Amino acid sequence: MAETSKDELVQLIRKFGAYLTVKFSNIFSISLNNMNSRSLGAIAGFAVAVVFTWRLLRTPRGPQRRIQKRQAASSSSSGLPSQTNTTSTSSGVCSTSEDLRAQNVVDEFFQPVKPTLGQIVRQKLSEGRKVTCRLLGVILEESSPEELQKQATVRSSVLEVLLEITKFCDLYLMERVLDDESEKKILQALEYAGVFTSGGLIKEKVLFCSTENGRSSFVRQLEPDWHIDTNPEVVSQLARFIKYQLHVTPIRPERTASNVFSSPSLEQFFGSI
Question: Where are the transmembrane segments (predicted)?
Answer without folding.
Answer: 39-57
